[in-house]
Amino acid sequence: MGGDHAPDAIIAGLDIAAERHPQAQFLIFGDEVRLRPVLAKCKRLAGRYELRHAAEVITGDMKPTVALRLRDSSLRRAIDAVLAGEAEGVISAGNTGALLALSKIVLKTLKGIDRPAMAAIAPSAKGDVVMLDLGLNVVYDARNLVEFALMGTVFARIVLGLPTPTFGLLNIGSEEGKGDETLRAASNTLRESPIAGQFYGFVEGHDIAAGTVDVVVTDGFTGNVALKTGEGALKLVGDLLRQVFSAGPFAKMGYLFARGALKRLKETLDPRRYNGAVLLGLNGVVVKSHGGTDALGFAHAVDVALDMIANDFNSRIADALTAMDHAILSEAPVPNQNG
């Protein structure tokens, strides 16, 4: 039961999600003494959950190696419940490193997936876009990029509702000769794969915000840098708008005329709409909520998890892997230029 505003924001978010998803049932792990009074206030959640006490706490600054030894933490108990088949997914706003480590070690990867990837949704000029990997894999090869593309397109179909999402490999240029040997090998493999018709080719950094493709595929290092750069740019735009419209009486008058449009812009770029990074490729649904989010943001992370569960995400990944020519996957060149 982690997060900057836990347990109140987490339980309030579950209460919102309970109304949106009337068939969902929830297993809640944490300090029973703290949670009981908070749960008593949530009428929509009443009768829809089971509370299980967890005595140990994984703090936000705890190292994953230490967290792995805490068998009675709420995070470990929740992941163990997925492994045991008592739950189909886990959502946490707590320690990111601990969630990643525990999920990979306890749940392990799906058959046919070499490495899991972290995916998230971001805004663009043409609508929402999926980005992956966002920090899980700094060392990677061509096969990993092919698998990320496959998982990303399935994720976009389920969560964004796109029947045939397009995808591209993030590169330093869009020309075929650009990038290192790993990127070029992945591109060649994808052009011969069953999802070749959805493959746009190489995309550049500006294509993310432009919405050139529905899914942007990259390695964990590059993806994390791109994500943090985008978050910083959005914050800068917000700060500049506040400065401009508070500069003087005429600026404030201009704000009154533009208020409706600015409200729509704020709603479009609201980070709570994009809360919920997903670990793709594991034996179970794992969603990481931002630790500082509020109830609405956490409810969105729950929405993402329940969409994946309702649409049997992992089975669809397995079907896509079957459709993918295994000879192409297994024989993809795997030169590693990244260590």
Report on the architecture of this protein:
This protein has 339 residues and is α/β, with parallel strands linked by helices. It folds into 2 domains: 8-107; 117-271 and 317-331, Isopropylmalate Dehydrogenase, CATH 3.40.718.10. Helices cover 48% and strands 14% of the residues. The chain has 13 helices and 10 strands. An 8-stranded mixed sheet has the order 3-10-9-4-5-8-6-7, sandwiched between helices. Strands 1-2 form a two-stranded parallel sheet. Strand 6, helix 7 (181-191) and strand 7 form a beta-alpha-beta unit. It is globular. The protein starts with 7 loop residues before the first helix and ends in an 8-residue tail after the last helix. The model has no long low-confidence stretch (mean pLDDT 90).
The poorly predicted ranges are none
- Read across the widest sheet, the strand sequence of neighbours is 3-10-9-4-5-8-6-7
State the helix count: 13
Largest sheet: 8 strands, mixed
Helix-strand makeup class: alpha/beta
Order of helices and strands: HEHEHHEHEEHEHEHEHHEEHHH
What's the domain count?
Answer: 2
Q: Got a strand count?
A: 10
CATH architecture field of the largest domain: 3-Layer(aba) Sandwich
CATH top level label of the largest domain: Alpha Beta
* The named CATH superfamily of the largest domain: Isopropylmalate Dehydrogenase
Kindly estimate the percentage of residues that lie in beta strands according to DSSP: 5-15%
Morphology? globular
Termini distance? 36 Å
Radius of gyration using CA atoms only = 21 Å
Task: Determine the mean pLDDT.
Answer: 90
